[in-house]
């Protein structure tokens, strides 16, 4: 007996509808030559921002002003740009602007603050990633800007716009986010508790630049979904905290033949809720999903906590091809 996890339920309900529009070559829509401050070979447009350092509060204050001449990533000849902002080397904490629909010259005017002591400023770098928002497929990276020598800017009043060319970036990996949860199994009671702790850096599914995430856990056996449990919905966030327990009754004799698919979903009041990303734990899961499950079984009655990188919903991530037969 194999454990093919290809439940028609799961797929029918939640499969991402990946469209191929939006993959049109951007150079077809490149706006006419640069004016003014742009350099030759500048193919990704440019961005302007204000930068100052508030000495009293030790905050680096960044105001993203606008971008010009962005390349078109969508078939309609436009993009839906937004900007993610990191203060490297810290990639855990990030900000992002709202999404601006159908434009190559978005005006952002959004201010963000990073707490950073003055004596660390020289070793930090501001990192902007400009993305094209897409509801039904991976967001396209338009390009990136890295700003160093932040100490120099700390002297200024922060009133003069700084312009930088956006350089084509190497595509980052899917960047769907990470999920932290613990698993605890009580063999005698036959009860498995998955405690969803928190998620970080989730993909933005809404034009606000945020998502409305909740976590759905599905107990799977032989490709069929037996039970599902959900957390509450956290509105307008990419870094939700839940601390909610999802409990499944799984008799000890069945524990080896089940797995749990854990999907982070975006709630929408209009239209369908969409999968942001998922992971799977079980004896026949891959990599971290298998290790987490094994650690849970090896430590009965003890919650075992683990971070999981979220992956896209694909048939290969839902189905295990070579599951060893346990019966
Ligand atoms: Ca788009
Ligand atoms: Ca939403």
UniProtKB/TrEMBL annotation:
GO terms for cellular component: exocytic vesicle; plasma membrane; transport vesicle membrane. It holds the Pfam family C2. SMART domains: C2 (SM00239). One of its GO terms (biological process) is calcium-ion regulated exocytosis. Residues 27-40 have a biased composition (Basic and acidic residues). It is found in: Cytoplasmic vesicle, Secretory vesicle membrane. It is a single-pass membrane protein. Residues 1-40 are annotated as: Disordered. Keywords: Calcium, Cytoplasmic vesicle, Membrane, Metal-binding, Repeat, Transmembrane, Transmembrane helix. GO terms for molecular function: calcium ion binding; calcium-dependent phospholipid binding; clathrin binding; phosphatidylserine binding; SNARE binding. The keyword Membrane applies. Residues 43-164, 175-308 form the C2 domain. Belongs to the synaptotagmin family. This is Synaptotagmin 3. It comes from Myripristis murdjan (pinecone soldierfish).
């Amino acid at each position: 007996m194999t454990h093919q996890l290809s439940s028609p339920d799961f797929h029918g309900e939640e499969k991402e509808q990946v469209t191929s529009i939006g993959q049109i070559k951007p150079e077809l829509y490149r706006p006419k030559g640069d004016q003014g401050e742009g350099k030759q070979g500048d193919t990704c447009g440019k961005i302007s921002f204000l930068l100052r350092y508030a000495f009293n509060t030790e905050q680096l204050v960044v105001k993203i002003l606008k971008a010009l001449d962005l390349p078109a990533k969508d078939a309609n000849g436009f993009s839906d740009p937004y900007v993610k902002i990191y203060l490297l080397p810290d990639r855990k904490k990030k900000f992002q602007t709202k999404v601006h629909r159908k434009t190559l010259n978005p005006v952002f005017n959004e201010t963000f603050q990073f707490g950073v002591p003055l004596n660390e400023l020289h070793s930090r770098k501001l990192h902007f990633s400009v993305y094209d928002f897409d509801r039904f497929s991976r967001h396209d990276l338009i390009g990136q800007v890295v700003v160093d020598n932040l100490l120099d800017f700390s002297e200024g009043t922060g009133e003069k716009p700084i312009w930088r060319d956006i350089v084509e970036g190497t595509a980052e990996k899917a960047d769907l986010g990470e999920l932290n949860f613990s698993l605890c199994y009580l063999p005698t009671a036959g009860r498995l508790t998955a405690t969803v702790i928190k998620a970080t850096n989730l993909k933005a599914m809404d034009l606000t630049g945020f998502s409305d995430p909740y976590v759905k856990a599905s107990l799977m056996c032989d490709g069929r979904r037996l039970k599902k449990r959900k957390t509450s919905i956290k509105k307008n966030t990419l870094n939700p905290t839940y601390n909610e327990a999802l409990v499944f009754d799984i008799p000890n004799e069945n524990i080896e033949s089940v797995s749990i698919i854990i999907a982070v979903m975006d709630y929408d009041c209009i239209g369908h809720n969409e999968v942001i990303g998922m992971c799977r734990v079980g004896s026949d899961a891959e990599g971290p999903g298998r290790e987490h499950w094994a650690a849970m079984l090896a430590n009965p009655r003890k919650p075992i906590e683990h971070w999981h990188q979220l992956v896209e919903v694909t048939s290969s991530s839902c189905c295990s091809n070579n599951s060893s037969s346990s019966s």
